[in-house]
UniProtKB/TrEMBL annotation, chain A:
Biological processes, Gene Ontology terms: glycine betaine transport; transmembrane transport
Protein name from the UniProt record: ABC transporter permease
Signal peptide residues on this chain, from the entry's feature table: none
Gene Ontology CC entries for this record: plasma membrane
Comp. bias regions, Low complexity: 222-233
Cross-referenced InterPro entries: ABC_transp_perm/SBD (IPR051204), MetI-like (IPR000515), MetI-like_sf (IPR035906)
Keyword Transcription: no
Organism: Streptomyces naganishii JCM 4654
Region Disordered: start-end pairs: 216-240
Automatic annotation (TrEMBL), chain B:
EC number: 7.6.2.9
Coiled-coil region(s): none
EC category name: translocase
Keywords: ATP-binding, Nucleotide-binding, Transport
Family in the record: Belongs to the ABC transporter superfamily.
ABC transporter domain location: 2-237
Cross-referenced InterPro entries: AAA+_ATPase, ABC_transporter-like_ATP-bd, ABC_transporter-like_CS, P-loop_NTPase
PROSITE patterns found in the cross-reference section: ABC_TRANSPORTER_1, ABC_TRANSPORTER_2
PANTHER family in alphabetical order: OSMOPROTECTANT IMPORT ATP-BINDING PROTEIN OSMV (PTHR43117)
Protein name as catalogued: ABC-type quaternary amine transporter
SMART domains cross-referenced by the UniProt entry: AAA
GO molecular function: ABC-type quaternary ammonium compound transporting activity; ATP binding; ATP hydrolysis activity
Amino acid sequence: MNRFFDLPSDLQHSWFGLIGLHLREALLPVLAGLVVALPVAQLCVRFRWLYPPVLGLTTVLYAIPSLAFFVVLIDYTGQTELTVMIPLAVYSLVVLVPAIVDGVRSVPQETLAAATAMGFGPVRRYFQVQLPIAVPAIVAGLRVATVSSISLVSVGMLIGNQGALGNLLNDANIYHRPELAVNSVVTTAALAILADAALVLVRLVLTPWMPRGTRRVRRTRTATARPEPAAQPVLEDAVR
Amino acid sequence: MIRIDSVTKRYPDGTVAVDRLSLEIPDRSITVLVGPSGCGKTTTLRMINRMVEPSEGRILLDGADIREQPVNTLRRSMGYVIQNAGLFQHRTILDNIATVPRLLGWNRQRARARAAELMERVGLDSSLAKRYPYQLSGGQQQRVGVARALAADPPVLLMDEPFSAVDPVVRKGLQEELLRIQDELGKTIVFVTHDIDEAIKLGTMVAVLRTGGRLAQYAPPAELLTAPADDFVEDFLGTDRGIRRLSFFASSALELKTSPIVAVDSTAEQIATRGAGDTPYLLVTDLDGRPLGWAEPGELTAGEIDPGRLLPYGRPFEHGQESLRAALDGAVLSPTGWAVGVDGSGRVVGVVSQQTIGEAIRGAHAEGAAVAAGTEAEVSG
Ligand SMILES: Nc1ncnc2c1ncn2[C@@H]1O[C@H](COP(=O)(O)OP(=O)(O)OP(=O)(O)O)[C@@H](O)[C@H]1O
Ligand SMILES: [Mg+2]
């Protein structure tokens, strides 16, 4: 058991250090993705014709293997965390943009008409009505983006040990210590589950206005519908 | 006063939703826009708060073109109620109602106090204040919608089929509530519906629109029922407009008879004298004067009157309060052909036969025709 947490010194981190690094490399890109996705999605809602090309673009970007990204980025950002995080941020857009667009569009026509009729300008209406009502959809998107980002960070091991927990896989190979690989996989999975649970909690806190029945329905819906995109990146890990 | 002045709305796709519509909407009364689906009611209503801009013509509010003030100022001075209420699902009932006061810059405390006051006004229990819209019934949500529209005390209220998504019983309650609130507040209400009965019940003036957004008739409801302008309006009014028109005539015109009434504890002598009149039946009341049922005088034995064996008395009408329609309904429902008039507390004030009601109706019609002829003369003159 001791050897399980006895990490080779070339990692330059304790187990907890690796976890912190991993979370930073996984979550900052999602946050950046959200910051970019919000205005992009708003533009797509405003100008309907913009949505299909934007959707197409995010999908194409998502299809670029991370290795290809690294090769290009390494000239500019070197063997740093940033080189790992930029592709992850780009990948998160493929889930976040449609999630926000669908969420904002799901606000009932009547609600919008009522807001306009009461004298809400477009900006106020967006921030006080559309965005809050879109929160469940946005959080659903964030959950997928976060889980896939946590699992994708590991590929960072390809560029000078920037894969955080993923680096353990490499070391397991080099030092013939399979328990390190187990550690890597189990810890990554646990992080993903905890992050997901945290987001569910955030959603519950932000949306006391959601019907309980629907809440459960929505959860099962996300549980059955979402794993497809969520599972995809995990499977594609091997390819990347 | 709101004046719609020869307004046309042509949507970008070429649909003419409203065609040269002119209407004068009087202050402090309910003006109903009614017509078949797609005739431009919503479009007309939304042009009043500029959610839709007219293609031609203009709309004046108290003499000034509504385009003269900033659009959001205009909208905040007009309450707006829609079908399914359109509540903010992410805000509590109290905060929903406080929306416009908050937009107007009231502090939260004052806005909420005002919202609580309005909840009471529209008949919502204060225990609902902290709930969210999904926790309310359709009828309650609609009340919240009305309260929200009234929150900043706007002089004008625009209502677009506000009660059409609730069941008939709840709808009736909401309509009566609206009339009561209107009695208290005296707003200028423009009310859209496709239900002609609702229009007739609520409207001080009713504008019937036809498909293509043209005005078919603009008149008070009684006149609409008496003298529909054309086949379209007549068709739209439906079959029994003669009967429905009776709701505009007060039952106070009826002379009630008090002679054929006996209390349940009457003596044989009283029964004999009362039964000797020209009416074939006697109405038996309880000791409080409430109706029990009808019987032929010969069937009544003093001291042994069994209320269970009396003939039913139908639905009594409140004399002076309810209309001739209610009186006629009572007479038709009663197996004896006599209607029972009661006071506010349900005590019998007299009875009246179908025949007498018929005479009153003929009298009222003659009067009504004269009134209609009078307004026509005014219009043409
Ligand atoms: N934004 C729009 N673009 C094009 N046509 C429209 C638009 N809104 C409404 N219309 C058309 O204008 C006409 C009048 O519509 P409106 O919504 O005013 O009808 P309505 O009387 O309120 O009908 P309903 O009783 O069904 O609510 C209809 O033929 C409708 O299809
Ligand atoms: Mg409509």
